[in-house]
# Entry
Amino acid sequence: MGAGRWLRTRSRNVLRIGRWEITKNAGGVDKRTILVAAVAMVGLAAMAPVAANQGVALDSGLYRVGVEPSSPYYGAVAADPTFVVQAPSPEAVEKGRQEVLIQGGTVADYARTQKGRAALAELRSTVQRYNDARMVDEPNQSAAFPVLVDLRYVDRDVSQIVVPNGESGSDETGSDSGTDLSVGTETDGASAGDGTSTASGDGGGSSGGDDGGSTAEGTAGTATDGDDDGSTGTDSGEDGSTGADGDDATTTATDTDGDQSGGLLGSVGDRFTASLSGGGVSGTPSDIQPPFPFRSLVLAFVFVLPLNFIIQAYGSTMLSERIKRRGELLLVAPVSRGDIIVGKTLPYFAAAIGIAAVIALGLDGGAVSVLAVAPLAMLFLSATFLGAMFARSFKELTFVTVTVTVSLTTYAFVPAIFTDVTPIALISPLTIVVRDLQGQAIGLGELAFSTLPPTATALVLFGLGAGLYREEDMFTQRPIPLKVLDALAGRIKRKRSVAFVTAILLPFVLVTELVAIAGLFALQALSLRLTIVLTLVAVAVIEEVAKSLHVYAGYVHAKFDRSLRTALTVGALSGVGFFLVEKLSLIVRLADLMSLDIGRAAFNESALSGPVVLSFLLAPLALHVVTASISAVGARRSRESYFLALLVAIAVHVAYNLTVVMVLGWQ
Amino acid sequence: MAGSKDVLSDPRTALARRELSSLSREKTIVLALLIQLFVASFSSFLVVGLTSLYDPGSVASDDIVVGVSGDQRDALEEAAARQDGIRVRTYRTRATALAAFQAGDRDDRVDAVVHASTFDGRIDAEVTAPQSSIRTTVVVQQVRTLLEAVERNERAVRESHLTREVVPLPQEVPASPYFGFTYTVLIPLLLFLPPFISGSVAVDSITEEIERDTLELLRVSPVSLVEIVDGKAAAMILLAPAQALLWIGLLAWNGIAVSNVLTLLVAVTAIAALVVSIGLGLGVQTAQRRQAQLLYSVLVIFVFGLAVFLPEHPTTTVAKLAVDSASVLSYAHVGGYVVLAVVGYALLRSVVGRVDAENL
# Structure
């Protein structure tokens, strides 16, 4: 009864403020503006096909090549806009006015500079492409393209072929996708289909299902050597059950997408997927591409783009509440702070979702895409909200908005690049969009893993901003760092709230750590050890700052007395709060992060707690309490001593992490 | 107007100084530089990261091991002998090769399996690569290079059946894979960001004065609206080449030589003047930040989009100038930008001159 009425009042208030925001804004941006903007947008849209058609060759005219029209190289050089054709002149090469010199049928000379070498390397790949293009017109195709390639990806852990037409639960679909592949090969000028399966040598392809054989025989060959085709059905059945089981966390992620994509979408979608992601290709050697979901990635970017415009308007309206003290009127109205914030945010959130839905319809994306964009939109809005609460002027807001745009786009985009490479990509909701656009199925666990942390982070940011949505903070101008401390201190009422603030900061910590891991991920190829150490340092820095910044804010705002005892209590509370929530965040496991060395390094504490003894559970607790106390003791004196203590705490944390990793071994 | 007067006592100089000091007081300029650095390092990270994924040389020294089987495995072995970073291990049957691939032993690791058999007069290569592994990209890239070499060798053998000549590949040289990216993407990005940020700040600067009614105070002093706009424009326009110079210096310090620095700075200044003129014009016309910013971002994107129709795209002009491959066309474009900037700014002044400041 009471709750119902409360809810009704809330929603009525929120809707009223939302409506007001819409009408005020529709009146705020006049028709002329909308018209000009619309004309410019239409103009841009009209230009797009032309631009796409001409293609903006960024590197056109970058290198200068001296070549005679009689040279066999002339055609290749002239056809590539990267090169400027010049008359060959050894003197020009010497003087740095020509990078590559071709005399007759050979490369006679090239500039011995970075540029000259880059030009020659570019020429090499140009010639390769040129040859391939010319061979297409040859009457004798088997001499022109003497090598045919059929590339498949196989998951080693599961001993199952996952790619792109990963066999599904049912035998039929399996053979369907097989057929498709061979058809694809045939149109490419080959007739691999049946031949492939018989050539396999393990005798698997011979019994029936010639078409499906190419997929089937791999499985047979690997799982149980020499098995014949009959086993395919059983095999995939088993795989299916592994997927459903879910007990084996390391295999679930890859398993499910392979299975379901075959089952749900059938072969056509799969072949589409293959061409998009570059997975499982047939053709000439030049046709195969390492996995890189380029097109889907570009399409996914379309989802992020409108958010940038929306937050511009949103930041503007939030800041103008403050600058003209308009917000004061709202604050004296009989509505709560929450109502105002939710009401003012709702129209923009709805617009973001609406646009995402339209884009999803246009790109053949599913509801999953929209669902995945929702937390991103929340994150953009919440960061802008907090920024607008911090900013002192429109100029500052512009920079805050750009910072938000750049960093959140990075967060969304960089991991999504690795969509097909590693489950770590799932830390970004955009990966879900990319997968959805590629026609892959998405598990509930994966969806939760990539959407919950950003959602929680957005809520935290809204919460911190809401702490500043008061008269005494809204209409004062203070530098941003002080405002950050204000926001944190606003949440601290008594000592106990320190633990609470640490706890609610955890999603933020999680997301930042994941981004750091993703950022360091590319380095892994260089040196695994260095990457792990760097990851440990990054994790320590992030966690220690999250455990102590609000404690420092509390001291700055004189929420605690400066005795040593209070400092230790507050530090311990912060450590305990962190520990408790971190244990709840075992969600990390859902996405199979533990199968990655780097992921294990970052989350070793969580990884330990599962099977191991009590001491292992207590060790991280002790660590968090100790380090948080160290920085709390520093925080009670001054800013300098806080930074010093923070450094010590980070050092202790890194040392602890390194020890744990060493004890567990590097792998 | 104020040709012979002392530059320092000119009210416009004072206004420009005030603009710059407000930027530095709010530390927004630091933020601006950070953002640019972030964007640049982000895009470099993308390229360096991705290239290192593709580039076998950058992956900890160990070679890619390819298990080969089938009656054409000799062709693969022959090609692999001449390729760096790849080793082949021969298996009698495909099944044993795949078993080794699946076993995934540390010492006896097989990264990929290529089963090459004769089929219909061609080599049919069935490649099995690992799914979802950090090495997958390198493995596939290496196998691709290997098979391309096999293709070339085979083409050479069958040359008599071909009607067209196959152009021999130029020799391989150790070249930086980032060279093209540095000059065609990174440098244009770093040089174009400052003008666009300047324009955006100019919009804020003018609309903020209007919205906060501080323009009125300025108007009390003996300065005209045109002079106010002049002062704001000067600060914002000059900020862009200063930042560009900073980036060029940083790049040079990192061993990336940038040629034609003066011409590049002229181009950056011209583009900044053009963009700032658009921003200030919109600010004065709309007198509201939200509208002005929206129109500014849309129009600047539009103008940049129009550049596609130029004979040489601005980014290409910048790239060619920076890499020292500039043609007459590139210089002509820079000249064109200067003319455009002068015209744009003159237009802004005449628009501002006709605006009744009392109504703002």
Summary: The mean pLDDT of chain B is 82. The longest strand of chain B covers residues 122-130. Chain B touches chain A through 125 residues (CB under 8 Å).
